[in-house]
Design a protein that fits this description.
It is a single chain. With 599 residues, the protein is of the alpha+beta class. 25% of the residues lie in helices and 24% in strands. Helix 10 links the parallel strand 16 and strand 17. Helix 14 runs parallel beside helix 15. It starts with 18 loop residues before the first helix and ends with a strand.
Length: 599
Protein backbone atom coordinates (compact mmCIF):
# COMPACT_ATOMS: atom_id res chain seq x y z
CA UNK A 1 0.00 0.00 0.00
CA UNK A 2 1.35 3.41 -0.90
CA UNK A 3 1.00 6.53 1.20
CA UNK A 4 -2.46 8.00 0.57
CA UNK A 5 -2.66 10.48 -2.30
CA UNK A 6 1.01 11.43 -2.44
CA UNK A 7 3.00 8.20 -2.57
CA UNK A 8 5.61 9.72 -0.22
CA UNK A 9 6.60 8.67 3.25
CA UNK A 10 4.83 9.44 6.51
CA UNK A 11 5.11 12.98 7.84
CA UNK A 12 6.63 13.06 11.35
CA UNK A 13 7.00 16.56 12.77
CA UNK A 14 10.37 17.16 14.47
CA UNK A 15 13.99 18.22 14.22
CA UNK A 16 15.07 14.92 12.60
CA UNK A 17 12.28 14.73 10.02
CA UNK A 18 14.57 14.37 6.97
CA UNK A 19 17.74 12.46 6.13
CA UNK A 20 19.56 15.80 5.79
CA UNK A 21 18.48 16.77 9.31
CA UNK A 22 19.74 13.43 10.66
CA UNK A 23 23.06 13.74 8.84
CA UNK A 24 23.66 17.21 10.24
CA UNK A 25 22.71 15.98 13.71
CA UNK A 26 25.29 13.19 13.52
CA UNK A 27 28.06 15.39 12.19
CA UNK A 28 27.25 18.29 14.50
CA UNK A 29 27.06 16.02 17.51
CA UNK A 30 30.66 14.89 17.08
CA UNK A 31 32.14 18.36 16.62
CA UNK A 32 34.13 19.53 19.62
CA UNK A 33 33.39 18.22 23.11
CA UNK A 34 29.99 16.53 23.05
CA UNK A 35 27.15 16.87 25.50
CA UNK A 36 27.66 14.28 28.27
CA UNK A 37 25.81 10.97 28.27
CA UNK A 38 24.61 10.00 31.74
CA UNK A 39 23.67 6.62 33.20
CA UNK A 40 23.23 5.21 36.70
CA UNK A 41 24.81 1.76 37.10
CA UNK A 42 24.60 -0.11 40.40
CA UNK A 43 24.35 3.13 42.37
CA UNK A 44 27.24 4.84 40.57
CA UNK A 45 26.93 7.66 38.05
CA UNK A 46 28.62 7.10 34.69
CA UNK A 47 29.23 10.21 32.59
CA UNK A 48 30.72 9.92 29.12
CA UNK A 49 31.74 12.47 26.47
CA UNK A 50 33.22 12.21 23.00
CA UNK A 51 35.64 14.50 21.22
CA UNK A 52 35.60 15.00 17.45
CA UNK A 53 38.69 15.16 15.25
CA UNK A 54 38.59 18.96 15.00
CA UNK A 55 39.26 19.47 18.72
CA UNK A 56 42.73 18.52 20.08
CA UNK A 57 41.71 17.80 23.69
CA UNK A 58 44.48 16.89 26.14
CA UNK A 59 42.46 16.36 29.34
CA UNK A 60 38.81 16.34 30.47
CA UNK A 61 37.47 17.09 33.97
CA UNK A 62 34.04 16.62 35.56
CA UNK A 63 32.88 19.25 38.06
CA UNK A 64 29.87 18.29 40.18
CA UNK A 65 27.87 19.04 43.30
CA UNK A 66 25.22 17.06 45.18
CA UNK A 67 23.78 19.88 47.30
CA UNK A 68 21.95 21.65 44.48
CA UNK A 69 24.55 24.38 44.02
CA UNK A 70 26.09 25.32 40.70
CA UNK A 71 29.16 23.22 39.76
CA UNK A 72 31.30 26.06 38.42
CA UNK A 73 35.03 25.46 38.33
CA UNK A 74 36.64 27.01 41.39
CA UNK A 75 33.47 27.08 43.54
CA UNK A 76 33.97 25.94 47.12
CA UNK A 77 31.38 23.15 47.17
CA UNK A 78 32.27 21.29 43.99
CA UNK A 79 34.01 17.96 43.58
CA UNK A 80 36.17 16.95 40.63
CA UNK A 81 36.62 13.65 38.81
CA UNK A 82 39.10 12.91 36.07
CA UNK A 83 37.89 11.20 32.91
CA UNK A 84 39.36 7.94 31.72
CA UNK A 85 40.12 7.84 28.01
CA UNK A 86 39.28 4.80 25.90
CA UNK A 87 40.98 3.81 22.62
CA UNK A 88 40.00 6.05 19.68
CA UNK A 89 37.43 4.91 17.12
CA UNK A 90 37.64 5.70 13.41
CA UNK A 91 34.59 7.43 11.90
CA UNK A 92 34.43 7.43 8.11
CA UNK A 93 31.66 10.01 7.95
CA UNK A 94 33.84 12.52 9.81
CA UNK A 95 37.00 11.14 8.20
CA UNK A 96 38.77 11.23 11.52
CA UNK A 97 39.09 9.64 14.96
CA UNK A 98 36.55 9.94 17.74
CA UNK A 99 37.87 9.88 21.28
CA UNK A 100 35.69 8.71 24.19
CA UNK A 101 36.12 9.68 27.83
CA UNK A 102 34.20 8.35 30.85
CA UNK A 103 34.09 9.44 34.49
CA UNK A 104 32.58 7.54 37.39
CA UNK A 105 31.10 9.04 40.54
CA UNK A 106 31.03 6.23 43.11
CA UNK A 107 27.96 5.50 45.20
CA UNK A 108 29.83 6.63 48.29
CA UNK A 109 29.81 10.19 46.94
CA UNK A 110 26.13 10.21 45.95
CA UNK A 111 23.33 10.75 48.49
CA UNK A 112 20.04 8.93 47.95
CA UNK A 113 18.09 12.20 47.77
CA UNK A 114 18.71 15.59 46.22
CA UNK A 115 20.19 16.77 42.95
CA UNK A 116 23.42 15.94 41.14
CA UNK A 117 24.57 18.89 39.05
CA UNK A 118 27.61 18.75 36.77
CA UNK A 119 29.60 20.46 34.05
CA UNK A 120 32.37 19.09 31.84
CA UNK A 121 35.41 20.98 30.61
CA UNK A 122 38.41 19.97 28.55
CA UNK A 123 41.83 21.48 28.00
CA UNK A 124 43.37 21.60 24.52
CA UNK A 125 47.02 20.97 23.78
CA UNK A 126 47.52 24.74 23.70
CA UNK A 127 45.90 25.19 27.12
CA UNK A 128 42.56 26.53 25.90
CA UNK A 129 39.51 25.60 28.01
CA UNK A 130 36.75 23.91 26.00
CA UNK A 131 33.35 23.40 27.63
CA UNK A 132 30.98 20.56 26.87
CA UNK A 133 27.74 21.71 25.23
CA UNK A 134 28.84 25.34 25.42
CA UNK A 135 29.34 25.23 29.19
CA UNK A 136 25.80 24.04 29.83
CA UNK A 137 24.99 22.74 33.30
CA UNK A 138 23.46 19.28 33.55
CA UNK A 139 21.42 17.92 36.45
CA UNK A 140 19.95 14.61 37.49
CA UNK A 141 17.60 13.81 40.37
CA UNK A 142 19.14 11.43 42.89
CA UNK A 143 15.73 10.62 44.34
CA UNK A 144 14.23 7.40 43.04
CA UNK A 145 10.64 7.44 41.77
CA UNK A 146 9.34 4.12 40.44
CA UNK A 147 6.93 4.18 37.50
CA UNK A 148 3.41 4.58 38.96
CA UNK A 149 1.28 1.47 38.55
CA UNK A 150 -1.57 3.59 37.17
CA UNK A 151 0.70 4.58 34.30
CA UNK A 152 1.91 1.05 33.55
CA UNK A 153 -1.63 -0.35 33.63
CA UNK A 154 -3.30 2.66 32.00
CA UNK A 155 -4.84 3.50 28.64
CA UNK A 156 -4.32 7.12 27.55
CA UNK A 157 -6.99 9.00 25.61
CA UNK A 158 -5.88 12.22 23.91
CA UNK A 159 -8.47 14.92 23.22
CA UNK A 160 -8.34 18.25 21.43
CA UNK A 161 -10.71 20.14 23.71
CA UNK A 162 -12.02 22.49 21.00
CA UNK A 163 -12.81 19.51 18.75
CA UNK A 164 -13.99 16.83 21.20
CA UNK A 165 -17.37 17.81 22.66
CA UNK A 166 -19.51 20.87 23.17
CA UNK A 167 -21.49 21.14 26.40
CA UNK A 168 -25.22 20.62 26.63
CA UNK A 169 -25.39 18.77 23.33
CA UNK A 170 -24.95 21.92 21.25
CA UNK A 171 -23.71 21.33 17.69
CA UNK A 172 -20.16 22.17 16.68
CA UNK A 173 -19.67 25.36 14.69
CA UNK A 174 -20.27 24.80 10.99
CA UNK A 175 -17.63 26.57 8.93
CA UNK A 176 -14.89 25.74 6.44
CA UNK A 177 -12.01 27.30 8.38
CA UNK A 178 -10.21 24.32 9.92
CA UNK A 179 -8.11 26.69 12.03
CA UNK A 180 -11.24 28.26 13.50
CA UNK A 181 -13.02 27.54 16.75
CA UNK A 182 -15.52 24.68 16.72
CA UNK A 183 -16.90 25.09 20.22
CA UNK A 184 -15.60 22.16 22.26
CA UNK A 185 -15.35 22.90 25.98
CA UNK A 186 -14.07 21.50 29.26
CA UNK A 187 -17.66 20.94 30.36
CA UNK A 188 -18.19 19.04 27.14
CA UNK A 189 -15.34 16.72 28.11
CA UNK A 190 -16.88 16.24 31.56
CA UNK A 191 -20.19 15.28 29.99
CA UNK A 192 -18.40 12.55 27.99
CA UNK A 193 -16.61 10.95 30.95
CA UNK A 194 -19.08 8.06 31.05
CA UNK A 195 -18.28 7.37 27.40
CA UNK A 196 -14.54 7.37 28.17
CA UNK A 197 -15.05 5.17 31.22
CA UNK A 198 -17.11 2.65 29.21
CA UNK A 199 -14.43 2.67 26.52
CA UNK A 200 -11.84 1.75 29.14
CA UNK A 201 -9.68 4.89 29.07
CA UNK A 202 -8.02 5.56 32.41
CA UNK A 203 -5.79 8.56 31.59
CA UNK A 204 -7.24 11.62 29.88
CA UNK A 205 -4.72 13.88 28.12
CA UNK A 206 -6.16 17.32 27.38
CA UNK A 207 -4.76 19.61 24.71
CA UNK A 208 -3.60 22.95 26.18
CA UNK A 209 -6.40 24.65 28.11
CA UNK A 210 -4.55 27.92 28.83
CA UNK A 211 -5.56 31.27 27.29
CA UNK A 212 -4.46 31.32 23.65
CA UNK A 213 -5.41 32.98 20.36
CA UNK A 214 -5.51 29.64 18.52
CA UNK A 215 -7.71 26.54 18.46
CA UNK A 216 -4.78 24.31 19.46
CA UNK A 217 -3.50 26.33 22.41
CA UNK A 218 0.22 25.79 21.91
CA UNK A 219 0.74 29.58 21.87
CA UNK A 220 0.05 30.38 25.51
CA UNK A 221 -0.94 33.83 26.77
CA UNK A 222 -1.09 32.97 30.48
CA UNK A 223 0.12 29.73 32.07
CA UNK A 224 -2.00 30.21 35.19
CA UNK A 225 -5.47 30.67 33.74
CA UNK A 226 -8.01 28.85 31.55
CA UNK A 227 -9.01 29.92 28.04
CA UNK A 228 -12.52 31.45 28.38
CA UNK A 229 -13.71 29.79 25.17
CA UNK A 230 -13.02 26.42 26.78
CA UNK A 231 -14.42 27.23 30.23
CA UNK A 232 -13.29 28.33 33.65
CA UNK A 233 -11.02 27.15 36.44
CA UNK A 234 -14.14 25.87 38.18
CA UNK A 235 -14.94 23.80 35.08
CA UNK A 236 -11.47 22.29 35.14
CA UNK A 237 -11.69 21.47 38.84
CA UNK A 238 -15.09 19.85 38.26
CA UNK A 239 -13.63 17.78 35.41
CA UNK A 240 -10.72 16.58 37.56
CA UNK A 241 -13.03 15.61 40.43
CA UNK A 242 -15.52 13.85 38.15
CA UNK A 243 -12.72 12.01 36.35
CA UNK A 244 -11.11 10.90 39.61
CA UNK A 245 -14.47 9.61 40.81
CA UNK A 246 -14.42 7.28 37.78
CA UNK A 247 -10.80 6.25 38.25
CA UNK A 248 -9.60 8.43 35.36
CA UNK A 249 -6.43 10.51 35.75
CA UNK A 250 -5.92 13.90 34.09
CA UNK A 251 -2.87 15.06 32.12
CA UNK A 252 -2.54 18.67 30.99
CA UNK A 253 -0.57 19.52 27.86
CA UNK A 254 2.16 21.88 29.08
CA UNK A 255 4.26 24.03 26.72
CA UNK A 256 7.62 25.06 28.28
CA UNK A 257 9.44 25.67 25.00
CA UNK A 258 7.66 28.73 23.62
CA UNK A 259 4.66 31.00 24.06
CA UNK A 260 2.56 33.49 22.08
CA UNK A 261 4.14 36.73 20.93
CA UNK A 262 1.02 38.32 22.46
CA UNK A 263 1.99 37.07 25.93
CA UNK A 264 2.38 40.10 28.24
CA UNK A 265 5.92 39.06 29.20
CA UNK A 266 7.09 39.00 25.59
CA UNK A 267 5.31 42.25 24.70
CA UNK A 268 7.06 43.90 27.62
CA UNK A 269 10.43 42.42 26.64
CA UNK A 270 10.00 43.59 23.05
CA UNK A 271 8.93 47.14 23.84
CA UNK A 272 10.95 48.02 26.95
CA UNK A 273 14.76 47.58 26.86
CA UNK A 274 14.74 47.57 30.67
CA UNK A 275 11.91 45.07 31.01
CA UNK A 276 12.39 42.50 33.79
CA UNK A 277 11.23 39.93 31.21
CA UNK A 278 13.80 40.70 28.54
CA UNK A 279 16.05 37.80 29.55
CA UNK A 280 13.08 35.44 29.50
CA UNK A 281 13.77 35.37 25.76
CA UNK A 282 16.82 35.25 23.50
CA UNK A 283 17.09 38.35 21.33
CA UNK A 284 19.70 38.14 18.59
CA UNK A 285 18.93 41.74 17.58
CA UNK A 286 16.46 43.50 19.88
CA UNK A 287 13.58 44.02 19.42
CA UNK A 288 12.64 42.17 16.23
CA UNK A 289 15.12 39.31 15.91
CA UNK A 290 14.82 36.51 18.46
CA UNK A 291 14.90 32.77 18.84
CA UNK A 292 11.54 31.20 18.01
CA UNK A 293 9.97 27.76 17.73
CA UNK A 294 11.13 26.45 14.33
CA UNK A 295 11.64 30.08 13.32
CA UNK A 296 7.93 30.96 13.64
CA UNK A 297 7.95 34.60 14.78
CA UNK A 298 4.59 34.33 16.56
CA UNK A 299 6.08 31.65 18.85
CA UNK A 300 9.10 33.15 20.65
CA UNK A 301 11.18 30.59 22.52
CA UNK A 302 11.41 30.82 26.29
CA UNK A 303 14.91 31.05 27.76
CA UNK A 304 14.36 28.56 30.57
CA UNK A 305 18.02 28.87 31.54
CA UNK A 306 17.03 32.22 33.02
CA UNK A 307 16.23 31.52 36.68
CA UNK A 308 13.13 33.74 36.77
CA UNK A 309 11.69 32.29 33.55
CA UNK A 310 12.38 28.79 34.86
CA UNK A 311 10.65 29.55 38.14
CA UNK A 312 7.63 30.97 36.27
CA UNK A 313 7.21 27.78 34.24
CA UNK A 314 7.75 25.39 37.13
CA UNK A 315 5.53 27.36 39.51
CA UNK A 316 2.78 27.34 36.88
CA UNK A 317 2.89 23.55 36.54
CA UNK A 318 2.98 23.10 40.32
CA UNK A 319 -0.08 25.36 40.62
CA UNK A 320 -2.26 23.06 38.49
CA UNK A 321 -1.13 19.98 40.40
CA UNK A 322 -1.38 21.45 43.87
CA UNK A 323 -4.59 23.47 43.52
CA UNK A 324 -6.52 21.48 40.92
CA UNK A 325 -5.30 17.92 41.46
CA UNK A 326 -4.16 17.18 37.91
CA UNK A 327 -2.08 14.02 37.79
CA UNK A 328 0.68 15.02 35.40
CA UNK A 329 1.70 16.63 32.16
CA UNK A 330 2.34 15.83 28.54
CA UNK A 331 5.35 18.05 27.82
CA UNK A 332 5.24 19.69 24.41
CA UNK A 333 8.51 19.87 22.43
CA UNK A 334 10.39 18.71 25.50
CA UNK A 335 13.61 18.55 23.47
CA UNK A 336 14.05 22.35 23.62
CA UNK A 337 14.57 22.99 27.37
CA UNK A 338 17.80 21.65 28.84
CA UNK A 339 18.22 18.51 30.89
CA UNK A 340 19.01 20.84 33.77
CA UNK A 341 15.57 22.44 33.43
CA UNK A 342 13.85 19.07 33.34
CA UNK A 343 15.68 17.87 36.44
CA UNK A 344 14.35 20.88 38.35
CA UNK A 345 10.87 20.50 36.85
CA UNK A 346 10.76 16.80 37.75
CA UNK A 347 11.89 17.41 41.32
CA UNK A 348 9.25 20.12 41.83
CA UNK A 349 6.43 18.01 40.39
CA UNK A 350 7.40 14.92 42.38
CA UNK A 351 7.57 17.00 45.57
CA UNK A 352 3.87 17.79 45.09
CA UNK A 353 2.86 14.29 44.03
CA UNK A 354 5.35 11.38 43.96
CA UNK A 355 2.84 9.49 41.78
CA UNK A 356 2.79 12.21 39.11
CA UNK A 357 3.31 11.31 35.45
CA UNK A 358 5.38 13.51 33.13
CA UNK A 359 5.72 12.35 29.52
CA UNK A 360 7.72 14.23 26.90
CA UNK A 361 7.20 14.85 23.22
CA UNK A 362 10.77 14.19 22.08
CA UNK A 363 11.08 13.29 18.40
CA UNK A 364 14.73 12.35 18.65
CA UNK A 365 17.00 9.30 18.78
CA UNK A 366 16.47 6.46 21.28
CA UNK A 367 19.89 7.34 22.69
CA UNK A 368 18.68 10.83 23.54
CA UNK A 369 15.33 9.55 24.83
CA UNK A 370 17.11 7.31 27.30
CA UNK A 371 19.02 10.31 28.67
CA UNK A 372 15.77 11.74 30.09
CA UNK A 373 15.49 8.92 32.63
CA UNK A 374 15.37 10.54 36.06
CA UNK A 375 14.27 13.80 34.45
CA UNK A 376 10.77 12.73 33.42
CA UNK A 377 8.68 9.57 33.66
CA UNK A 378 8.85 8.75 29.98
CA UNK A 379 8.48 9.92 26.39
CA UNK A 380 5.97 9.26 23.62
CA UNK A 381 7.28 6.50 21.37
CA UNK A 382 7.56 8.05 17.91
CA UNK A 383 9.85 5.23 16.82
CA UNK A 384 7.12 2.66 17.46
CA UNK A 385 4.68 4.92 15.61
CA UNK A 386 6.87 4.95 12.52
CA UNK A 387 7.60 1.23 12.61
CA UNK A 388 3.99 0.08 13.04
CA UNK A 389 2.69 2.41 10.30
CA UNK A 390 5.44 1.32 7.90
CA UNK A 391 4.54 -2.31 8.54
CA UNK A 392 0.77 -2.41 8.92
CA UNK A 393 -0.32 0.62 6.88
CA UNK A 394 2.22 1.32 4.15
CA UNK A 395 3.83 -2.14 3.74
CA UNK A 396 7.29 -0.58 3.49
CA UNK A 397 8.71 -2.58 6.42
CA UNK A 398 8.44 -6.36 6.39
CA UNK A 399 7.11 -8.31 9.35
CA UNK A 400 10.58 -9.81 9.79
CA UNK A 401 12.10 -6.32 9.92
CA UNK A 402 9.42 -5.11 12.32
CA UNK A 403 9.90 -8.05 14.68
CA UNK A 404 13.67 -7.60 14.65
CA UNK A 405 13.25 -3.86 15.28
CA UNK A 406 10.80 -4.49 18.14
CA UNK A 407 13.15 -6.87 19.92
CA UNK A 408 16.06 -4.43 19.58
CA UNK A 409 13.93 -1.49 20.71
CA UNK A 410 12.71 -3.40 23.77
CA UNK A 411 16.23 -4.54 24.65
CA UNK A 412 17.62 -1.01 24.30
CA UNK A 413 15.29 0.33 26.99
CA UNK A 414 15.25 -2.81 29.13
CA UNK A 415 16.33 -2.10 32.70
CA UNK A 416 15.63 1.62 32.40
CA UNK A 417 13.00 3.24 34.62
CA UNK A 418 11.39 5.01 31.68
CA UNK A 419 8.04 4.43 29.96
CA UNK A 420 7.35 4.78 26.24
CA UNK A 421 3.60 5.18 25.59
CA UNK A 422 2.66 4.04 22.10
CA UNK A 423 0.24 5.62 19.62
CA UNK A 424 -0.94 5.07 16.04
CA UNK A 425 -1.61 8.71 15.10
CA UNK A 426 -1.77 12.18 16.65
CA UNK A 427 -2.67 15.80 15.99
CA UNK A 428 0.44 16.53 13.91
CA UNK A 429 0.08 13.87 11.22
CA UNK A 430 -2.41 12.04 9.03
CA UNK A 431 -4.88 9.93 10.98
CA UNK A 432 -4.19 6.23 10.63
CA UNK A 433 -7.55 5.50 9.00
CA UNK A 434 -6.82 8.11 6.34
CA UNK A 435 -3.31 6.73 5.84
CA UNK A 436 -4.82 3.22 5.46
CA UNK A 437 -7.22 4.59 2.80
CA UNK A 438 -10.19 3.81 5.00
CA UNK A 439 -9.31 0.13 5.52
CA UNK A 440 -10.57 -0.55 9.05
CA UNK A 441 -8.99 -4.00 8.99
CA UNK A 442 -5.50 -2.48 8.96
CA UNK A 443 -6.41 -0.12 11.78
CA UNK A 444 -7.77 -3.01 13.85
CA UNK A 445 -4.68 -5.12 13.21
CA UNK A 446 -2.32 -2.31 14.20
CA UNK A 447 -4.40 -1.62 17.32
CA UNK A 448 -4.38 -5.31 18.25
CA UNK A 449 -0.60 -5.31 18.16
CA UNK A 450 -0.40 -2.01 20.06
CA UNK A 451 -2.67 -3.22 22.87
CA UNK A 452 -0.92 -6.57 23.24
CA UNK A 453 2.50 -5.05 23.90
CA UNK A 454 3.55 -3.98 27.40
CA UNK A 455 3.88 -0.22 26.72
CA UNK A 456 1.03 2.06 27.77
CA UNK A 457 -1.21 2.57 24.70
CA UNK A 458 -2.60 5.94 23.61
CA UNK A 459 -5.75 6.59 21.55
CA UNK A 460 -6.12 9.83 19.61
CA UNK A 461 -9.70 11.04 19.99
CA UNK A 462 -12.05 9.60 17.40
CA UNK A 463 -9.78 6.84 16.11
CA UNK A 464 -11.97 4.37 18.00
CA UNK A 465 -15.14 5.51 16.18
CA UNK A 466 -13.70 5.77 12.66
CA UNK A 467 -12.95 9.51 12.59
CA UNK A 468 -10.78 10.31 9.59
CA UNK A 469 -10.18 13.48 7.55
CA UNK A 470 -11.10 15.05 4.21
CA UNK A 471 -7.69 15.83 2.75
CA UNK A 472 -4.05 14.89 3.30
CA UNK A 473 -2.19 17.21 5.65
CA UNK A 474 0.48 17.73 2.94
CA UNK A 475 -0.79 20.32 0.48
CA UNK A 476 1.27 22.41 -1.94
CA UNK A 477 4.43 21.88 0.07
CA UNK A 478 2.76 22.79 3.35
CA UNK A 479 1.68 20.76 6.36
CA UNK A 480 -1.96 21.59 7.09
CA UNK A 481 -2.14 19.83 10.44
CA UNK A 482 -5.74 20.89 11.07
CA UNK A 483 -6.86 18.27 8.53
CA UNK A 484 -6.37 15.62 11.24
CA UNK A 485 -8.20 17.65 13.90
CA UNK A 486 -11.79 17.51 12.70
CA UNK A 487 -14.59 17.61 15.29
CA UNK A 488 -15.68 14.36 16.91
CA UNK A 489 -18.56 12.79 14.97
CA UNK A 490 -20.85 11.88 17.86
CA UNK A 491 -23.76 11.43 15.45
CA UNK A 492 -21.81 9.12 13.13
CA UNK A 493 -20.07 6.51 15.29
CA UNK A 494 -18.73 3.34 13.71
CA UNK A 495 -20.32 0.98 16.24
CA UNK A 496 -18.29 -2.04 15.07
CA UNK A 497 -14.97 -0.24 15.50
CA UNK A 498 -15.99 1.19 18.88
CA UNK A 499 -17.01 -2.28 20.11
CA UNK A 500 -13.66 -3.63 18.90
CA UNK A 501 -11.72 -1.01 20.86
CA UNK A 502 -13.79 -1.66 24.00
CA UNK A 503 -13.08 -5.37 23.73
CA UNK A 504 -9.40 -4.74 22.99
CA UNK A 505 -8.99 -2.64 26.13
CA UNK A 506 -10.83 -5.25 28.21
CA UNK A 507 -8.56 -7.96 26.79
CA UNK A 508 -5.50 -5.92 27.70
CA UNK A 509 -6.64 -5.91 31.32
CA UNK A 510 -7.39 -9.67 31.16
CA UNK A 511 -3.86 -10.49 30.04
CA UNK A 512 -2.06 -7.78 32.04
CA UNK A 513 -0.12 -10.29 34.15
CA UNK A 514 1.23 -12.00 31.05
CA UNK A 515 2.22 -8.69 29.44
CA UNK A 516 4.50 -8.12 32.43
CA UNK A 517 6.31 -11.36 31.59
CA UNK A 518 8.74 -12.22 28.80
CA UNK A 519 7.69 -12.15 25.14
CA UNK A 520 8.78 -14.65 22.50
CA UNK A 521 8.28 -14.58 18.74
CA UNK A 522 6.84 -17.90 17.55
CA UNK A 523 6.13 -17.26 13.86
CA UNK A 524 7.38 -14.45 11.67
CA UNK A 525 6.48 -15.15 8.03
CA UNK A 526 6.24 -11.95 6.04
CA UNK A 527 5.71 -13.69 2.72
CA UNK A 528 2.41 -15.11 3.96
CA UNK A 529 1.64 -12.32 6.41
CA UNK A 530 1.78 -14.57 9.49
CA UNK A 531 3.04 -13.13 12.75
CA UNK A 532 2.66 -14.83 16.13
CA UNK A 533 4.16 -14.03 19.51
CA UNK A 534 3.46 -15.27 23.00
CA UNK A 535 3.99 -14.34 26.63
CA UNK A 536 5.12 -16.36 29.59
CA UNK A 537 3.44 -15.49 32.88
CA UNK A 538 5.10 -12.75 34.89
CA UNK A 539 8.28 -14.11 36.38
CA UNK A 540 8.04 -17.22 34.19
CA UNK A 541 11.04 -18.74 32.47
CA UNK A 542 11.49 -19.02 28.74
CA UNK A 543 11.35 -22.83 29.03
CA UNK A 544 8.02 -22.73 30.89
CA UNK A 545 4.49 -22.67 29.54
CA UNK A 546 3.21 -19.83 27.42
CA UNK A 547 0.26 -18.01 29.00
CA UNK A 548 -0.93 -15.84 26.08
CA UNK A 549 -0.68 -16.09 22.29
CA UNK A 550 -1.18 -13.21 19.83
CA UNK A 551 -1.89 -14.24 16.23
CA UNK A 552 -1.86 -11.76 13.32
CA UNK A 553 -2.65 -12.27 9.64
CA UNK A 554 -1.21 -9.33 7.74
CA UNK A 555 -2.20 -10.47 4.27
CA UNK A 556 -5.09 -10.21 1.83
CA UNK A 557 -5.74 -13.97 2.04
CA UNK A 558 -7.21 -16.13 4.77
CA UNK A 559 -4.56 -17.86 6.83
CA UNK A 560 -4.74 -20.92 9.04
CA UNK A 561 -2.11 -20.68 11.75
CA UNK A 562 -1.11 -23.95 13.40
CA UNK A 563 0.88 -23.91 16.63
CA UNK A 564 2.45 -26.69 18.68
CA UNK A 565 1.22 -25.46 22.06
CA UNK A 566 -0.27 -28.31 24.12
CA UNK A 567 -3.02 -27.40 26.57
CA UNK A 568 -6.40 -25.71 26.68
CA UNK A 569 -6.74 -22.32 25.03
CA UNK A 570 -9.55 -19.78 24.86
CA UNK A 571 -10.03 -17.22 22.12
CA UNK A 572 -10.65 -14.02 24.10
CA UNK A 573 -12.60 -12.41 21.25
CA UNK A 574 -15.03 -15.27 20.59
CA UNK A 575 -14.73 -17.20 23.89
CA UNK A 576 -14.25 -20.35 21.80
CA UNK A 577 -12.22 -23.00 23.64
CA UNK A 578 -9.64 -25.21 21.98
CA UNK A 579 -9.38 -28.54 23.75
CA UNK A 580 -6.26 -30.21 25.08
CA UNK A 581 -4.50 -31.11 21.84
CA UNK A 582 -0.85 -31.06 20.90
CA UNK A 583 -1.54 -28.41 18.26
CA UNK A 584 -3.93 -25.51 17.85
CA UNK A 585 -5.16 -24.41 14.41
CA UNK A 586 -6.76 -20.99 14.11
CA UNK A 587 -8.27 -19.64 10.86
CA UNK A 588 -7.77 -15.90 10.41
CA UNK A 589 -9.57 -13.73 7.88
CA UNK A 590 -7.49 -11.29 5.78
CA UNK A 591 -5.93 -8.51 7.84
CA UNK A 592 -7.20 -9.83 11.15
CA UNK A 593 -5.91 -11.30 14.35
CA UNK A 594 -6.87 -12.75 17.69
CA UNK A 595 -5.59 -13.49 21.17
CA UNK A 596 -5.58 -16.86 22.94
CA UNK A 597 -5.08 -17.32 26.66
CA UNK A 598 -4.35 -20.54 28.49
CA UNK A 599 -7.34 -21.85 30.41
Amino acid sequence: MTDNATGIGDFIFGTLATNADRMESVIGGWRGLSAPAFEMRDGTAQIAVTVGPETPIDDVTLYFTTDGSDPTSGAATISERAFKEYPPVWDTLLWGYLRRFEATIPASMLPTQGMLRYRVAGVTLSGEIVHSAGGQRFSHSLSSYPIPEWVKNGVIYHVFVDRFSTDGGKPFADHSNLAGFYGGTIRGVTERLDYLSELGASILWLSPIFPSPSHHGYDVLNYMDVEPRLGTKADLKALVEAAHARGIRILLDFVPSHLSNEHPFFKSAQTDPNSPYRDYFTFTHWPDEYTAFFGVKSLPSINSENSDARAYLIDSAVYWMRDFGVDGFRLDYAYAPSHDFWADFYAAIKAVNPEAFTVGEIVETPELLRSYEGRMTGALDFHFLQAIRKTFVYDTMSIEQFDDWLHRHTAYFNGHDFVLPTFLDNHDMNRILWAAQGDKRRLKLAALLQFTLPATPTIYYGTEIGLSQQRDIRQNGLGILEESRLPMTWDAIDADLLAYYKRLIAIRHEIAAALAGSRQTLIVDGQNGRYVYGYYAEGGQADGELAVLVLLNHSAQENIITLNVPGNWQDVFTDETHADNQTVSIPLAPFSGTVLKRC
